[in-house]
Design goal:
Elements: E1 3-6, H1 17-26, E2 31-34, H2 41-50, E3 56-59, E4 62-63, H3 69-83, E5 87-92, H4 96-102, H5 110-130, E6 136-137, E7 142-143, E8 168-171, H6 175-184, E9 187-189, H7 197-214, E10 223-225, E11 231-233, H8 236-253, H9 261-265, H10 269-280, H11 293-299, E12 302-304, H12 308-316, E13 322-324, H13 334-344
Helix pairs in contact: 1-2, 2-3, 3-5, 5-6, 6-7
Protein backbone atom coordinates (compact mmCIF):
# COMPACT_ATOMS: atom_id res chain seq x y z
CA UNK A 1 0.00 0.00 0.00
CA UNK A 2 1.40 3.37 -1.05
CA UNK A 3 0.65 7.00 -0.46
CA UNK A 4 0.44 8.27 -4.04
CA UNK A 5 1.23 11.85 -5.05
CA UNK A 6 0.71 13.43 -8.46
CA UNK A 7 3.32 15.66 -10.08
CA UNK A 8 3.15 18.87 -12.08
CA UNK A 9 5.10 20.01 -15.10
CA UNK A 10 7.46 22.83 -14.17
CA UNK A 11 6.21 24.89 -17.11
CA UNK A 12 2.52 24.62 -16.30
CA UNK A 13 1.28 28.24 -16.15
CA UNK A 14 0.00 29.40 -12.78
CA UNK A 15 -3.35 30.08 -14.46
CA UNK A 16 -3.75 26.31 -14.92
CA UNK A 17 -2.54 25.10 -11.52
CA UNK A 18 -6.00 25.12 -9.90
CA UNK A 19 -7.50 22.92 -12.63
CA UNK A 20 -4.52 20.56 -12.43
CA UNK A 21 -4.93 20.22 -8.67
CA UNK A 22 -8.68 19.62 -8.92
CA UNK A 23 -8.03 16.93 -11.52
CA UNK A 24 -5.48 15.21 -9.25
CA UNK A 25 -7.97 15.26 -6.39
CA UNK A 26 -10.71 13.83 -8.62
CA UNK A 27 -8.39 10.99 -9.70
CA UNK A 28 -7.93 9.97 -6.06
CA UNK A 29 -4.34 11.09 -5.46
CA UNK A 30 -3.49 11.78 -1.83
CA UNK A 31 -1.24 14.67 -2.71
CA UNK A 32 0.40 16.81 -5.36
CA UNK A 33 4.02 17.89 -5.70
CA UNK A 34 4.53 21.39 -7.06
CA UNK A 35 7.96 22.43 -8.39
CA UNK A 36 9.87 25.63 -7.73
CA UNK A 37 11.75 26.32 -10.93
CA UNK A 38 10.04 28.18 -13.76
CA UNK A 39 7.26 29.45 -11.48
CA UNK A 40 7.20 30.25 -7.77
CA UNK A 41 6.56 27.10 -5.76
CA UNK A 42 4.78 28.85 -2.89
CA UNK A 43 2.41 30.63 -5.28
CA UNK A 44 1.65 27.34 -7.04
CA UNK A 45 1.03 25.63 -3.70
CA UNK A 46 -1.39 28.36 -2.65
CA UNK A 47 -3.39 28.01 -5.86
CA UNK A 48 -3.51 24.21 -5.60
CA UNK A 49 -4.56 24.23 -1.94
CA UNK A 50 -7.22 26.88 -2.47
CA UNK A 51 -8.73 24.89 -5.35
CA UNK A 52 -9.07 21.59 -3.45
CA UNK A 53 -10.61 20.20 -0.28
CA UNK A 54 -8.73 16.97 0.45
CA UNK A 55 -5.51 17.05 -1.56
CA UNK A 56 -2.23 17.53 0.27
CA UNK A 57 0.23 19.82 -1.54
CA UNK A 58 4.01 19.70 -1.17
CA UNK A 59 6.73 21.94 -2.58
CA UNK A 60 9.16 19.56 -4.23
CA UNK A 61 11.41 21.27 -3.67
CA UNK A 62 11.52 24.95 -2.72
CA UNK A 63 14.94 26.53 -3.32
CA UNK A 64 15.78 27.56 0.23
CA UNK A 65 18.88 29.72 0.41
CA UNK A 66 17.71 32.72 -1.67
CA UNK A 67 14.71 32.99 0.72
CA UNK A 68 14.94 34.02 4.36
CA UNK A 69 13.71 31.30 6.73
CA UNK A 70 11.40 33.93 8.26
CA UNK A 71 9.79 34.66 4.89
CA UNK A 72 9.35 30.94 4.23
CA UNK A 73 7.97 30.37 7.73
CA UNK A 74 5.33 33.08 7.23
CA UNK A 75 4.27 31.62 3.87
CA UNK A 76 4.23 28.03 5.13
CA UNK A 77 2.22 28.99 8.20
CA UNK A 78 -0.30 30.84 6.04
CA UNK A 79 -0.63 27.92 3.62
CA UNK A 80 -1.13 25.52 6.50
CA UNK A 81 -3.93 27.68 7.93
CA UNK A 82 -5.48 28.31 4.51
CA UNK A 83 -5.69 24.60 3.75
CA UNK A 84 -6.71 23.26 7.13
CA UNK A 85 -3.40 21.43 7.55
CA UNK A 86 -2.72 20.11 4.04
CA UNK A 87 0.54 21.91 3.22
CA UNK A 88 3.95 20.20 3.23
CA UNK A 89 7.18 22.19 2.94
CA UNK A 90 9.88 20.53 0.87
CA UNK A 91 13.24 22.34 0.78
CA UNK A 92 16.37 21.98 -1.34
CA UNK A 93 19.76 23.63 -1.51
CA UNK A 94 20.25 23.76 -5.32
CA UNK A 95 23.77 23.88 -6.77
CA UNK A 96 26.29 26.68 -6.36
CA UNK A 97 26.05 27.89 -9.96
CA UNK A 98 22.33 28.55 -9.64
CA UNK A 99 22.48 30.06 -6.16
CA UNK A 100 25.24 32.50 -7.14
CA UNK A 101 24.57 33.12 -10.81
CA UNK A 102 20.78 32.79 -11.06
CA UNK A 103 19.72 34.04 -7.63
CA UNK A 104 22.64 36.37 -6.82
CA UNK A 105 22.85 34.84 -3.35
CA UNK A 106 26.12 34.18 -1.50
CA UNK A 107 27.19 30.55 -1.36
CA UNK A 108 28.41 28.69 1.71
CA UNK A 109 28.76 25.05 2.73
CA UNK A 110 25.21 23.80 2.08
CA UNK A 111 24.85 21.09 4.73
CA UNK A 112 25.50 23.19 7.86
CA UNK A 113 23.51 26.00 6.30
CA UNK A 114 20.52 23.73 5.62
CA UNK A 115 20.74 22.32 9.14
CA UNK A 116 20.44 25.84 10.55
CA UNK A 117 17.74 26.71 8.04
CA UNK A 118 15.48 23.89 9.22
CA UNK A 119 16.26 24.36 12.90
CA UNK A 120 15.51 28.07 12.61
CA UNK A 121 12.18 27.30 10.94
CA UNK A 122 11.29 25.03 13.84
CA UNK A 123 12.32 27.72 16.32
CA UNK A 124 10.10 30.26 14.56
CA UNK A 125 7.15 27.85 14.48
CA UNK A 126 7.67 27.09 18.18
CA UNK A 127 7.67 30.79 19.00
CA UNK A 128 4.39 31.28 17.19
CA UNK A 129 2.73 28.15 18.56
CA UNK A 130 3.84 28.21 22.18
CA UNK A 131 4.84 31.80 22.87
CA UNK A 132 8.45 30.80 23.55
CA UNK A 133 11.01 33.53 23.04
CA UNK A 134 12.54 33.58 19.57
CA UNK A 135 16.21 32.95 20.28
CA UNK A 136 17.90 31.14 17.41
CA UNK A 137 21.53 32.14 16.97
CA UNK A 138 23.65 30.17 14.52
CA UNK A 139 26.52 30.86 12.19
CA UNK A 140 24.31 31.46 9.16
CA UNK A 141 21.00 32.60 10.64
CA UNK A 142 20.06 34.61 13.71
CA UNK A 143 16.45 35.18 14.74
CA UNK A 144 16.01 37.04 18.02
CA UNK A 145 13.15 39.48 17.51
CA UNK A 146 9.39 38.82 17.29
CA UNK A 147 7.16 41.65 18.41
CA UNK A 148 3.52 40.82 19.18
CA UNK A 149 2.43 42.99 16.23
CA UNK A 150 4.12 40.59 13.76
CA UNK A 151 3.46 37.32 15.58
CA UNK A 152 0.77 35.10 13.96
CA UNK A 153 -1.86 33.46 16.10
CA UNK A 154 -1.18 29.80 16.95
CA UNK A 155 -2.53 27.29 14.47
CA UNK A 156 -5.34 25.06 15.71
CA UNK A 157 -4.96 21.30 15.82
CA UNK A 158 -5.26 20.43 12.13
CA UNK A 159 -5.76 17.12 10.39
CA UNK A 160 -5.31 14.00 12.45
CA UNK A 161 -3.67 15.56 15.49
CA UNK A 162 0.05 15.86 16.04
CA UNK A 163 2.04 18.97 15.26
CA UNK A 164 -0.21 21.63 13.69
CA UNK A 165 2.79 23.17 11.90
CA UNK A 166 3.61 21.98 8.37
CA UNK A 167 6.04 19.07 8.08
CA UNK A 168 9.46 19.91 6.68
CA UNK A 169 10.96 17.62 4.05
CA UNK A 170 14.27 17.81 2.21
CA UNK A 171 15.61 17.07 -1.21
CA UNK A 172 19.14 15.69 -1.13
CA UNK A 173 21.71 13.98 -3.34
CA UNK A 174 25.08 13.82 -1.60
CA UNK A 175 25.93 11.67 1.43
CA UNK A 176 25.99 14.50 3.97
CA UNK A 177 22.79 16.18 2.77
CA UNK A 178 20.97 12.85 2.62
CA UNK A 179 22.08 12.01 6.15
CA UNK A 180 20.96 15.46 7.28
CA UNK A 181 17.42 14.61 6.19
CA UNK A 182 17.45 11.82 8.75
CA UNK A 183 18.87 14.14 11.39
CA UNK A 184 16.57 17.18 11.22
CA UNK A 185 13.73 16.76 8.69
CA UNK A 186 10.47 14.84 8.54
CA UNK A 187 11.58 13.01 5.42
CA UNK A 188 13.59 12.88 2.20
CA UNK A 189 12.15 13.58 -1.24
CA UNK A 190 14.30 11.67 -3.71
CA UNK A 191 15.54 13.09 -6.98
CA UNK A 192 14.69 11.18 -10.19
CA UNK A 193 18.38 10.22 -10.48
CA UNK A 194 18.48 8.51 -7.08
CA UNK A 195 15.22 6.57 -7.15
CA UNK A 196 16.45 3.18 -8.41
CA UNK A 197 15.64 0.44 -5.86
CA UNK A 198 19.24 -0.72 -5.54
CA UNK A 199 20.41 2.84 -4.90
CA UNK A 200 17.71 3.35 -2.27
CA UNK A 201 18.56 0.09 -0.55
CA UNK A 202 22.35 0.36 -0.61
CA UNK A 203 22.89 4.11 -0.37
CA UNK A 204 19.89 6.27 0.57
CA UNK A 205 18.30 4.30 3.41
CA UNK A 206 21.62 3.66 5.23
CA UNK A 207 22.42 7.37 5.07
CA UNK A 208 19.02 8.33 6.47
CA UNK A 209 19.45 5.77 9.24
CA UNK A 210 22.89 7.12 10.11
CA UNK A 211 21.59 10.69 10.27
CA UNK A 212 18.58 9.75 12.37
CA UNK A 213 20.64 7.76 14.84
CA UNK A 214 23.15 10.61 15.20
CA UNK A 215 20.27 12.78 16.45
CA UNK A 216 18.79 10.08 18.68
CA UNK A 217 15.83 9.55 16.36
CA UNK A 218 14.26 6.36 15.11
CA UNK A 219 14.87 5.96 11.35
CA UNK A 220 11.22 4.94 10.98
CA UNK A 221 10.26 8.50 11.96
CA UNK A 222 11.80 9.77 8.70
CA UNK A 223 9.56 9.41 5.64
CA UNK A 224 10.88 8.65 2.16
CA UNK A 225 9.08 9.99 -0.90
CA UNK A 226 10.32 8.26 -4.05
CA UNK A 227 9.89 10.42 -7.12
CA UNK A 228 10.79 8.04 -9.92
CA UNK A 229 10.29 8.84 -13.60
CA UNK A 230 7.51 6.32 -14.19
CA UNK A 231 6.92 5.35 -17.83
CA UNK A 232 3.30 4.28 -18.17
CA UNK A 233 0.16 4.62 -20.25
CA UNK A 234 -2.69 2.66 -21.81
CA UNK A 235 -0.79 1.08 -24.71
CA UNK A 236 2.61 0.46 -26.28
CA UNK A 237 2.40 3.52 -28.50
CA UNK A 238 2.00 5.75 -25.46
CA UNK A 239 4.82 3.95 -23.67
CA UNK A 240 7.13 4.60 -26.60
CA UNK A 241 6.44 8.33 -26.46
CA UNK A 242 6.76 8.49 -22.67
CA UNK A 243 9.95 6.44 -22.75
CA UNK A 244 11.64 8.91 -25.07
CA UNK A 245 10.54 11.81 -22.93
CA UNK A 246 12.14 10.21 -19.88
CA UNK A 247 15.27 9.43 -21.89
CA UNK A 248 15.61 13.09 -22.85
CA UNK A 249 15.18 14.21 -19.23
CA UNK A 250 17.74 11.71 -17.96
CA UNK A 251 20.29 12.89 -20.53
CA UNK A 252 19.89 16.44 -19.23
CA UNK A 253 20.07 15.43 -15.57
CA UNK A 254 23.05 13.11 -15.95
CA UNK A 255 25.03 15.74 -17.82
CA UNK A 256 25.43 17.39 -14.39
CA UNK A 257 28.22 15.85 -12.27
CA UNK A 258 26.22 16.33 -9.04
CA UNK A 259 23.86 13.60 -10.23
CA UNK A 260 26.52 10.99 -11.05
CA UNK A 261 26.56 8.99 -7.77
CA UNK A 262 23.84 6.65 -9.00
CA UNK A 263 25.68 6.23 -12.31
CA UNK A 264 28.80 5.29 -10.37
CA UNK A 265 26.93 2.61 -8.40
CA UNK A 266 25.96 0.90 -11.66
CA UNK A 267 29.35 1.38 -13.33
CA UNK A 268 28.21 4.08 -15.74
CA UNK A 269 30.20 7.13 -14.68
CA UNK A 270 31.69 7.27 -18.17
CA UNK A 271 28.19 7.93 -19.54
CA UNK A 272 27.87 10.99 -17.29
CA UNK A 273 31.28 12.23 -18.41
CA UNK A 274 30.25 11.76 -22.03
CA UNK A 275 27.01 13.69 -21.52
CA UNK A 276 28.86 16.46 -19.71
CA UNK A 277 31.36 16.77 -22.56
CA UNK A 278 28.61 16.87 -25.19
CA UNK A 279 26.80 19.70 -23.41
CA UNK A 280 30.01 21.70 -23.13
CA UNK A 281 30.49 21.22 -26.88
CA UNK A 282 26.90 22.30 -27.54
CA UNK A 283 26.06 18.94 -29.14
CA UNK A 284 22.59 18.67 -27.58
CA UNK A 285 21.26 16.51 -30.40
CA UNK A 286 23.74 13.74 -29.55
CA UNK A 287 22.74 13.36 -25.90
CA UNK A 288 19.91 10.85 -26.29
CA UNK A 289 22.13 8.12 -27.74
CA UNK A 290 24.14 7.97 -24.50
CA UNK A 291 21.18 6.72 -22.40
CA UNK A 292 20.47 3.27 -23.83
CA UNK A 293 17.44 1.09 -23.04
CA UNK A 294 19.29 -0.81 -20.30
CA UNK A 295 20.03 2.39 -18.43
CA UNK A 296 16.52 3.68 -18.90
CA UNK A 297 14.96 0.49 -17.52
CA UNK A 298 17.33 0.67 -14.53
CA UNK A 299 16.25 4.17 -13.53
CA UNK A 300 12.62 4.28 -14.71
CA UNK A 301 9.90 1.70 -13.98
CA UNK A 302 8.03 0.86 -17.18
CA UNK A 303 4.64 -0.74 -17.77
CA UNK A 304 1.17 -0.25 -19.21
CA UNK A 305 -1.61 0.67 -16.82
CA UNK A 306 -2.49 -3.00 -16.49
CA UNK A 307 1.09 -3.85 -15.50
CA UNK A 308 2.53 -0.88 -13.64
CA UNK A 309 1.02 -1.64 -10.23
CA UNK A 310 2.95 -4.88 -9.96
CA UNK A 311 6.07 -3.23 -11.36
CA UNK A 312 5.98 -0.51 -8.70
CA UNK A 313 5.24 -3.00 -5.93
CA UNK A 314 8.22 -5.08 -7.03
CA UNK A 315 10.47 -2.01 -7.22
CA UNK A 316 9.46 -0.23 -4.03
CA UNK A 317 7.59 -2.62 -1.78
CA UNK A 318 9.50 -2.83 1.49
CA UNK A 319 11.57 0.26 0.66
CA UNK A 320 8.95 2.99 0.98
CA UNK A 321 5.22 3.52 1.27
CA UNK A 322 5.23 6.93 -0.48
CA UNK A 323 5.64 7.36 -4.24
CA UNK A 324 4.76 9.70 -7.07
CA UNK A 325 2.79 8.57 -10.11
CA UNK A 326 2.22 10.65 -13.26
CA UNK A 327 -1.17 11.89 -14.34
CA UNK A 328 -2.07 10.99 -17.94
CA UNK A 329 -1.01 13.41 -20.64
CA UNK A 330 -4.42 12.83 -22.22
CA UNK A 331 -7.40 13.26 -19.83
CA UNK A 332 -9.24 10.64 -21.89
CA UNK A 333 -7.26 8.06 -19.89
CA UNK A 334 -8.05 9.52 -16.47
CA UNK A 335 -10.36 6.68 -15.46
CA UNK A 336 -7.63 4.10 -16.15
CA UNK A 337 -5.08 6.11 -14.19
CA UNK A 338 -7.53 6.53 -11.30
CA UNK A 339 -7.91 2.76 -11.13
CA UNK A 340 -4.13 2.39 -10.93
CA UNK A 341 -3.91 4.98 -8.15
CA UNK A 342 -6.60 3.13 -6.19
CA UNK A 343 -4.74 -0.17 -6.57
CA UNK A 344 -1.48 1.37 -5.45
CA UNK A 345 -3.24 2.77 -2.41
CA UNK A 346 -4.54 -0.69 -1.61
CA UNK A 347 -8.10 -0.11 -2.71
Amino acid sequence: MFRVYATMDQRLPLSKVADHARRAEALGYEGLNVPDSVHDGLAAAALALNATERLRVATSVLVAFPRSPMAVAVAAYDLQELSGGRFELGLGSQVRGNIVGRYSTPWSAPVPRMREYILSLRAIFDCWQTGAALAFEGEHYQFTRMQPFFKPDPLPALGEGGDPCPPIYMGGIGPLMTALSGEVSDGLMTHPTNAAPRYLREVILPRIKRGAQSAGREPSAVDLMVGALVVTGPDEATLAVEREGVRQLLTFLYSTPSYWPSLELFGWRDRGERLHALTREGRWGDLAQVIDDQMLSTFAPVGRYGEIVEVLREWYGGLTSWITFPMPSDPAHDSEAAAVVAQLQGG
